[in-house]
């Protein structure tokens, strides 16, 4: 079977978007999905489109997004970290991506992943645990199926485990000065908690575990 893998795979990253300006050009269902994900991440979202879905209209009415109710202009992407070209017109999407590059922003082009700088993976989340799935743009259906399969494995036990380890990390920073000692304790504690999770047992409480060390 002949494979068409990219010679340089995409670089995986989790971005902190709170308060960062992101621009979505387009007003249909694809744009609505982009906007929803951006809002969930705390981004400052500007939407540019003369017509929008009822969902996007409601978000604009509630003041959750800034809606420029007109055709796209190159100046719309100035100051943005991420730009999403999500219209149903390929020529407009290509222009948006080109303008984004000139403005120093990263562009995502709907229906043409190769034309942009990054792709949106499928994702599943439970508490602090988040998994992302990307199938190289080969098949949205495959991405959805893989995401659903992995989502079933990100159970409440894993979410609770992540919360427990996060709390232990905060406590350790406050009471143990030596970085090497902190890292060693957290490594061992995470290992014991994972073993308990694998065995279906309750993970040890951090304070009690620390007292035994």
UniProtKB/TrEMBL annotation:
InterPro entries reported for this sequence: Met8-like, NAD(P)-bd_dom_sf, SirC_C, Sirohaem_synthase_N
Q: What is its EC number?
A: 1.3.1.76
Keyword NAD in record? yes
| MF (Gene Ontology) | ferrochelatase activity; precorrin-2 dehydrogenase activity
Which terms are listed as keywords in the entry? NAD, Oxidoreductase, Porphyrin biosynthesis
Pathway it belongs to?
Porphyrin-containing compound metabolism; siroheme biosynthesis; sirohydrochlorin from precorrin-2: step 1/1
Lineage: superkingdom: Bacteria
Write out the catalysed reaction: precorrin-2 + NAD(+) = sirohydrochlorin + NADH + 2 H(+)
- Gene Ontology BP terms: siroheme biosynthetic process
Q: Which Pfam families match?
A: NAD_binding_7
NCBIfam families reported in the protein's UniProt record: cysG_Nterm
Q: What is this protein called?
A: precorrin-2 dehydrogenase
Task: State the organism of origin.
Answer: Paenibacillus thiaminolyticus
């Amino acid at each position: 079977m002949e494979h068409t893998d990219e010679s340089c795979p995409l670089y995986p990253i989790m971005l902190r978007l709170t308060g960062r300006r992101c621009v979505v050009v387009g007003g249909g269902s694809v744009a609505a999905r982009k906007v929803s994900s951006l809002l969930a991440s705390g981004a400052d979202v500007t939407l540019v489109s003369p017509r929008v879905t009822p969902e996007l209209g409601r978000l604009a009415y509630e003041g959750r997004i800034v809606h420029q109710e007109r055709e796209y202009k190159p100046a719309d992407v100035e100051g943005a970290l991420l730009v999403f070209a999500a219209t149903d017109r390929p020529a407009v999407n290509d222009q948006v991506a080109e303008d984004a590059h000139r403005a120093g922003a990263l562009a995502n082009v709907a229906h043409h992943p190769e034309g942009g700088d990054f792709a949106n993976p499928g994702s599943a989340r439970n508490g602090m645990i988040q998994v992302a799935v990307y199938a190289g743009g080969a098949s949205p259906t495959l991405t959805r199926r893989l995401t659903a399969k992995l989502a079933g494995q990100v159970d409440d036990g894993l979410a609770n485990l992540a919360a427990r380890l996060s709390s232990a990390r905060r406590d350790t920073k406050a009471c143990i000065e030596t970085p090497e000692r902190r890292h060693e304790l957290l490594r061992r504690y995470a290992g014991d908690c994972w073993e308990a999770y694998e065995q279906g047992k309750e993970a040890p409480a951090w304070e009690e575990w620390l007292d035994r060390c």
